[in-house]
Amino acid sequence: MSIPGTIPETRRPVGLVARLERRLGETGILLLFLAPAMLVIAVAQFYPLASSAILSFFDWSLARSPTVGPFIGLDNYARTFKDPIFAGTVTFTIVFAISSTLLQLACGLGIALLTVGESYTLRFVRTLLMLPMVIAPIAVGTIWRMILAARVGPLNQGLAAIGIDGPNWLGDPMWAAFSLIMIDAWEWTPFVAVTLTAALTSLPGDLLRAASVDGAGRWKSFRYIVFPMILPVLVLVAMFRLIEAFLTLDIVFTTTAGGPGYATHTLSFWIYQQGLKYFNISYAAASSWIMLLACVGIALAFLAWRRQVGKWQVSR
Amino acid sequence: MNLAVRLGRATLIAIALVVALAPFVVLFLNSLRPADEFLSAGSGLVPSHITFEHYAEIFDPRGDTFRYLLNSLIITTTSTIIAVLLGAMAAYALARLKLPFRLSIVIGVMFLVIRFYPKITVALPYFLLMRQFNLLDTHLAVIIAHVSLTVPFVVWMLLAFFEDFPRELEQAAIVDGCGPIRRFMLIVVPLMTPALAAAAVLTAFMSWNEFLMASTVAPNFAKTLPVRISGFITDKGILWGSMSAMSSVIVIPVALFALFTQRYLARGLTVGAVKG
């Protein structure tokens, strides 16, 4: 808010910017600051989102017709729920997302505890351990596809050297699912580690020292002091990771392409195939809205949980 | 700390390092491996001799790799500049605006929500929208998509910083008759450079690596490197050599860049969860 009357006439700034500022006022300018970002979001996110919701009630396959077909109500949704492949996809996606997230949380917490500290070496180690996360997920897939190649991949050759006949990692339905979970965990454990390291670093050092003076053992001071204090961050990280694992698409493309059969179709991959390969636009839109609502549900549940954790912490 | 504990800790860290870094080594060695060695079992981790044939092949001047590389560079740079600029302006506005009915919070939540739904929901209608505007297969289509995906991160990151920004610094400028444009440009931006750098680093990584939107709206001319890589896996089999070389081109510069910008990157990633 500008303060009218406090600026002497002679000091009043001139020039385009100053005139603009005076003309629009504080609030006007700030709204103008907000506008471009809002515009981009509206065009590229919210409009498509709304348009997808509308399309999901129509019958439209781009392969059959260039224009939108008739209104068919909830038929696309009914069809989705009746589709046995969709059901299989959902099951796989849930198993994949939960296993991978749990694995990442466990490994990430372990790495954070192992590498927390300010020494030069530890900082460097942390930087190196971050690398899997910064590279393109598409490339993560190609790298692991090479490593896991059944006959010539280095992993199976290594196993053969010690007398183990390695499985067909990406070709067998069970092993392919297992491999995808491992690859996703490899890629995203660093995110958990980085965030939890920051949380650990922000803990008051006195508290830990006081605990060790009290004679609390390592495990006890972790269990009763450190863990409860980083729990809110852990819950948030778990939420971000679970939702993103639920949406996994890229690594499926370059490792298994959803196969063998439909064994490793994640929901995103399945919808991608429906929409952008077969151009069943309205069917894909309905499926993706089902998925969207599930994601919002997961997020709300986690945010409610975090509130509980917060309250519980305050009450202690 | 006694010796056994220290040794155990060092061993575990070493294992973590091997698991995290070995795939990079495999990738790089494979990109230098002669083509005939890919299909024979027992060729070992290290190639029998080093060859640059795959790099020569993908960078064949008659091929399109240079164009894809250029596309990726153009799209990443432009998206990053626009996203950080728009995001910083929006975050500043949200931190300073006094809107009725808690509108600032509503707008803030709007930006946050973008992280929580499947982008595949947006991809298809966005494709149709771009088709309508005749923007399919242009840099602009990908840039708009990338800005819309990254601006929310920038806004949320910078909001946390703006809330800590000492208002006294701005008060003096207000008394001198500076409106928000000049305060933002002359006081806020210069003092926020580290935070802006963190936002820029994060945005650049996200844009460089993004696949879904780029593959949806830019299948040919404006194709980016990640989209190109997915094309190596064909029904006829995999071009291992070219694929490793191309993957190295997309991975290694980013990994090196990450080593140098680690501080900013870590800050950018954690600010949402740890501070919020």
Please, could you describe this protein's structure?
The complex is a heterodimer of chains A (316) and B (276). With 316 residues, chain A is an all-alpha fold. Chain A has a single domain, classed as MetI-like (MetI-like fold). Chain A has helices at 16-55, 75-82, 84-115, 120-134, 137-148, 154-161, 173-201, 205-213, 218-246, 250-255, 267-277, 281-315. In chain A, helix 2 (75-82) packs across helix 12, helix 3 (84-115) packs parallel to helix 7 and helix 8 packs antiparallel against helix 9. The longest helix of chain A is centred in the first third of the chain and has 40 residues, at 16-55. Chain A is globular, with a radius of gyration of 26 Å. Chain B is an all-alpha fold and 276 residues long. Chain B folds into two domains: 1-51, no CATH class; 64-275, MetI-like (MetI-like fold), CATH 1.10.3720.10. Helices cover 73% and strands 1% of the residues of chain B. A two-stranded antiparallel ribbon of chain B has the order 1-2. In chain B, a hairpin with a 2-residue loop joins strand 1 and strand 2. In chain B, helix 1 (3-31) crosses helix 12 (240-260) and helix 3 packs parallel to helix 6. The longest helix of chain B is centred in the first third of the chain and has 32 residues, at 65-96. The two termini of chain B are 34 Å apart. The mean pLDDT of chain B is 84. Classes of the chains: A mainly alpha (316), B mainly alpha (276). The interface between A and B is large, with 97 and 102 residues.
